[in-house]
Specification:
The complex is a heterodimer of chains A (180) and B (502). Chain A contains 6 helices and 2 strands; from the N terminus they run ααααββαα. Chain A has 180 residues and is mainly alpha-helical. Chain A has one domain. In chain A, strands 1-2 form a two-stranded antiparallel ribbon. The two termini of chain A are 38 Å apart. Chain B has one domain. Chain B contains 20 helices and 2 strands. The chains are: A mainly alpha (180), B mainly alpha (502). At the A-B interface, helix 4 of A face helix 1, helix 6 and helix 13 of B.
């Protein structure tokens, strides 16, 4: 699917990648009281990764990223869910958040910090993971879509057998035995 | 108060843990089974709490209603939670006995847990927008499960499911926007209080009709059921058991909730329309079932026919009819999913579920035959099995309201149900032919039948202890219809933001 590599495009993307992620971080941090937040920051970060995949090729992405997008998303969901569930331990309602003011922090001055940032971080990771997964699957598919690419299949499945039954059902779809 | 959110939180955390765990293994299965058992225990405790006390309300993030989002567990929601966790536990265990971990798809268990998360959130939610979110969580997990182990033929059958449900979700979003424009709130309790003054406003009727289309589509009410009968047979048996038990019943639950608790009670036109649509659903569903000649196809059409009975009870709209509907839901979820599991076991034994090439099952495996017979007769409504009491109550309400045509349709549908069940019985269990091999050496069927036997035992208990179950259903129905008490429970919880009170 890749055209010929463009040197100019690749160099440019290497710079833009960091710029986009700076913007993403800015969006993530300002999201508490202004437009922004985990979701939009995640989309920005994911778009930077998509730019990178356009410049370097989809096949190079797993090597560069070194993380499994699905597990990144799961980690994000875990962070968000645990942030929501933590107040339950103290008998407070689900998703309650707490804030505090830190005065005269070196370099930053007065800072307002709170647990919503943790929740937003979870959302951010979730969005980055899911958006990357979606785009990579769509970009790699030339003949139909598969839930797991070959590499992931190796990672998830037991070493002895293929995880998916490769037996095609008969054409009328009625006679497939459910498992054997 | 903390318990109210657990039915959503537990499956969500389980799903995430299963995603990290990755490879299917016996340990991963044990973990899933323990989690599903814990969910059932929590749901049972919630039923106990809501039966003895008032509804549980939890404000999310400690922001009180009507501005904050609330989670409300009343008796009906707790009953539905109990049923969903019971069905999930049974089908998960059945799936374990059906296939070894080495050929299990690694994403099936996480997706089932995400599906349960969505279903439970739909039961718990106290506002219209979160109901939409719950539907989306449920539907996205169900799209993925539907096509997870599918071949090209299956994907083609799954496409209408995806397309129609996307249209339904869009309409739901339009309906939520409409409701917000109309009432200025999406909170169920707040809508209930504000809608009472505007019950003769035609816009409220229009909203009710729009929501009727949306939830009727999810529940599979005539003429919006065409997505169901071809998509359910492509599922693997354990997942089909969960789908057939829970997914359409979420639509029925939401109809109960929205027509009973949220919208004003004097929308007589909408209720009558619903009752007649239900009559059509019963007949067309059962005719579809007769036309099929493979077990899963017949059972899929029967879901529709049974949905007709429940929706008819909602359309008749008296407290007793609501109680009958709730009883019918309790009976139907367990019977239907266990029948799908029986069908899966029969297909395993005969290596097909095409009725033309099945047979000899009664002679070789009388246990399975007995299980099928009990559940099939219960579905058709023979006393003293659980289906009889549900149908009896609905027919009594119908006769009281002098809806003789609808009652006649219901009786006709029951007789045809019995006929199509006998079709399965005659071909697969009673019939004998030399060519049909019964693979009794495949030991998996024994363990699978044991799971089904557990479900049949529960179903028998519902039939024999119908008095007690009906008392619970009656209480749930009165609670659902009591808008004042619902609003009082929701607004009595204080938190940050608005002062308590509407």
């Amino acid at each position: 699917m890749m055209g010929p590599q463009s040197y100019i495009f690749e160099r440019l993307v290497r710079v833009v990648f960091f710029l986009v992620n700076m913007v993403a971080l800015y969006l993530l941090l300002r999201g508490h009281n202004w437009p922004g937040g985990g979701f939009i920051a995640g989309l920005a970060s994911a778009s930077s990764l998509i730019l990178l995949s356009l410049a370097l090729g989809i096949a190079a992405m797993p090597r560069i990223l070194r993380f499994d997008p699905v597990r990144l998303a799961a980690a994000g969901l875990l962070v968000a869910a645990l942030t929501g569930a933590a107040p339950l331990l103290a008998g407070r309602p689900f998703l309650e958040h707490f804030h505090t003011h830190l005065h005269r922090v070196p370099l930053l001055g007065d800072v307002h910090v709170g647990t919503p940032l943790l929740f937003d971080l979870g959302v951010y990771l979730l969005v980055v993971g899911i958006a990357c997964k979606l785009i990579f699957v769509l970009a790699q598919s030339t003949q139909g879509l598969r839930a797991l690419v070959a590499e992931e299949e190796r990672r998830y499945s037991s070493p002895l057998e293929q995880p998916l039954e490769e037996t095609a059902g008969p054409d009328d779809g009625k006679e497939r035995t459910d498992a054997d | 108060m903390n318990l109210a959110i657990q039915p959503v939180l537990l499956p969500l955390l389980t799903a995430v843990a299963l995603l990290f765990w990755g490879r299917p293994s016996p340990g991963r299965r044990t973990f899933t089974a323990i989690s599903a058992g814990a969910q059932l225990v929590v749901a049972g405790f919630l039923i106990h709490l809501t039966y003895t006390q008032s509804p549980l309300v939890m404000p999310m993030g400690n922001w009180a209603a009507p501005y904050g989002i609330v989670v409300v567990v009343d008796l009906l929601a707790a009953i539905m939670l109990g049923l969903s966790s019971f069905t999930a536990l049974a089908t998960i265990l059945y799936g374990f006995f059906e296939a070894s971990p080495r050929i299990e798809h690694p994403l099936r268990l996480p997706l089932v847990q995400f599906l349960v998360t969505g279903i439970n959130l739909a039961f718990l939610t106290g506002d219209l927008f979160n109901l939409f979110v719950a539907f989306e969580v449920m539907l996205i997990a169900s799209y993925a499960l539907l096509t997870l182990e599918a071949d090209n033929w299956d994907v083609k059958q799954a496409f209408p499911y995806l397309a129609i449900n996307l249209v339904g979700s869009t309409l739901f979003l339009c309906g939520a926007g409409f409701a917000y424009r109309l009432f200025g709130t999406l909170n169920f309790a707040d809508i209930a209080l504000r809608a009472r003054a505007m019950s003769d406003d035609p816009r409220v009727t229009a909203l009710a009709l729009l929501l009727l289309v949306v939830f009727g589509l999810k529940a599979g009410v005539f003429p919006l059921y065409c997505w169901l009968p071809n998509s359910y047979p492509i599922l693997p048996a354990p997942v089909a058991g969960l789908y057939s038990g829970m997914l359409t019943k979420v639509g029925v639950y939401v109809l109960l909730r929205v027509l009973g608790t949220v919208l004003p009670h004097d929308l007589a036109g909408v209720h009558t329309l619903l009752a007649w649509l239900a009559g059509a659903t019963m007949i067309f569903g059962v005719l579809g079932a007769i036309s099929r000649n493979f077990i899963r196809g017949i059972l899929s059409y029967h879901i529709l026919s049974q949905i007709g009975f429940m929706v008819l009870a909602i359309g008749l709209f008296t407290p007793f009819a609501f109680a009958a509907c709730i009883f019918y839901i309790i009976h139907h979820i367990i019977v239907k999913s266990s029948l799908f599991l029986v069908g899966g076991t029969a297909a395993l034994l005969n290596r097909t579920d095409n009725l033309d090439r099945m047979g000899n099952l009664w002679r070789q495996t009388p246990l399975l035959g007995l299980l099928f017979l009990l559940q099939a007769l219960s579905l058709a409504g023979l006393p003293p099995l659980s289906g009889f009491w549900g149908k009896y109550a609905i027919l009594v309400v119908g006769l009281e309201q002098r809806e003789f045509v609808l009652v006649g349709l219901a009786i006709l549908a029951s007789i045809l149900t019995l006929f199509s069940m006998l079709k399965i019985w005659n071909a697969a269990f009673w019939g004998s032919s030399e060519e049909c091999e019964v693979c009794v050496w495949d030991w998996r069927w024994l363990r699978m039948s044991q799971i089904v036997a557990g479900m049949v035992a529960v179903s028998l208990a519902i039939g024999l202890g119908a008095e007690g179950v009906f008392r619970v259903a009656n209480r749930a129905a009165i609670q659902v219809l009591d808008q004042e008490a619902y609003a009082r429970a929701v607004f009595s919880v204080t938190g940050k933001g608005a002062p308590a009170g509407p």
